[in-house]
Amino acid sequence: MSSPSNENQPPLTITTRRKEDIIKIMLATDNHIGYMERDPARGQDAINTFKEILELAVKHDVDFILLSGDLFHENRPSRDCLYRTIALLREYTLSNKPVEVELLSDPDEGKAEGFSFPAINYEDPNLNVGIPVFSIHGNHDDPQGAGPEGALCALDLLSATGLVNYIGKVDLPSSNEATQPTGGIQVKPVLLSKGNTRLAIYGVGNVKDQRMHYELRSNRVRMFMPRDKDNWFNILMIHQNRVKHGPQESVPEGMFDDSINLVVWGHEHDCRIVPEEVAGKPYYITQPGSSVATSLSDGEAIPKKVALLEIAGREFQMTPILLRTVRPFVIEEVVLSEAAEEESFSLTEKTEIIKFLRSRVEALIQRASQEFAERNAAAVSNGEEPLEDMLPLVRLKVDVTGVPEMGNPVRFGQEFQGRVANPKDVLVYQRAKTASRKSVKMNVPELSIDDPNISISERLAKVRVEQLVEEYLRAQELQLIGQGGMHDAVQMFVEKDDSTSIKTYILQSLKHIFTGVERNDIDEDELEEALIKAREQAEIQYKEQLEKKAKSKSKGKEKEAEEDRMAVDSMEEDPDDYRAGSVNNDDSEEEPAPPPKKRATTTSRSKNAVPATKLTTSAKSKSSGNGKATSKKGLFIDDSEDDDQSFQGREEEEEDEEEEEVPKKRINRSAVLSALGNKATKKAAPKNQTTTRSSRTTTAKSTAATKSKGKKSQAIEISD
After folding, report:
1. Which entry of 32, 73, 137, 140 is annotated as an active-site residue?
2. Where do the DSSP E strands lie in 278-402?
3. Is the full-model pTM beyond 0.70?
């Protein structure tokens, strides 16, 4: 590599040969242990390569290992992943080999709160650490949770076991408001020395790209540096987007402190391990890339490597090391329209297209096998053990622009079962994007909120999640999932926090579609059309279900309104409907109602007669408790008769005055329903009711005659 143009940049070669001053470091990142661990072919790829990295560290006698994030693929790795990782770290990093780098910073900085063991494992006298491992977290294994110990991740477990030194976790605002009132991100280094070489390692675990971009742009990243920082070699470990995905969805390369000498960049998987200069900055950037392919893209097809970094004073050099255990991966892109002209086949002949694609995949398999054999032979010539053959990863990207019909890519891949490691996704179809629609509507805003003639407040008022979701789904041209149902599922997820609405709808839709397709004997040529018809039928049934649900909901509301109306009407019914204690309303049985507030009282007074009713148990107990002789009162007297015909004793008048002060009980819905049920029971047995009524009338007459002391009183019997 050419010599740096900036005087402050460190040289890329080491001039000193004193081994006592050279710090040797193994650089790796994005190991993704646990990726596709249940896949029978690729399940052990990540852990096997991680084992090779540890073996290389032992082979090259490094002082320590630096991992720049995403050691695990999952935030909660499986027990098998943790077991294998812990076993490998114990096997290769714990030994009687002395650690030659001296720790100059505080060993308790970042240690587990409430425990006595230090944060740096080789400072613990109870552990024999031969090769320390320093790691930051990535976006896959970042801390989560809000327990008593705060947010935790898998690296916290490895740190507690004494196998990994977890750095770069503390990124909270400064607690010392006097010295740092604006907050920001704090970065405290691990200070090491070996001979005359001093090394400062600054680790920053993954944070949101928007936040990191803002903190760097606002100069709110506070790096604690030694006073003589120019005498130190400073390494910065980060795990962020390097490729720009949006205005603030990446971290610019030139926004780091000028005191940094080397940036170890994690998260990006393509291997760019040779240090690269940054325009206008004195530091270099190295990007080791992932050690396992987690996607079948062009960047993952670049050979995977780790780096042996050697530092002496402020000089450094880097030696890339090819990883042998990485599964061979070949990728190729073909344009069918061009291939049809070269190979002389028609784009309308599906059989000819499949035959051509099959031949291209066969060529890719042979190429991958040849590359692996050459790599294996080179390793054997260097005295290493040969590796067993591995099934390759093969990806053929096919541009199908202008092709009317294509076959099923999954069915195509099944022909290579046992010959490739990814038979389900060997082929991927893609079409060239056309800008014809957008060119026609260049001056017309796509969304109503893009109209330049409306104000910002009006734009914000028009922003609705359901509208954005509907427009997005309409633009996707869904082939299997109905647009209306998917829109409703997303709306349920957003508005009602239903985390399973989208999954439930998709599973139900696919089940219905596949069921409809399986019932018919369909040829492969008609499969796509059958799926489209099944989707349309599923969408029609979904709309019918919504209509039925809406109708049932409206019927339920009408029924509820009818019950409420019946409840109100029941309150307005004649008291004659409540006989023989069907409604437990004592006041209406014993005396005329107070001044009318309801129609029930007015109606009772407009009648010529009222029923003769026995006192309920509750009324008797209440009357006896008050010392009133209400048991003598057995019937109601017609209000139209003169006062001399009504029997109202002095004792009863006092009772009326007391009871008028008590507000009349309202009849609730349950009481009304009970009354209606009792009324229906009485109609079912008219003979018994007539006998009871006549018995009551006779008893009432005799009681009234005795009480009136010779005065006439007439009890009128009410007939149904």
Report:
1. 140
2. 284-287, 305-312, 315-322, 329-335, 393-399
3. no
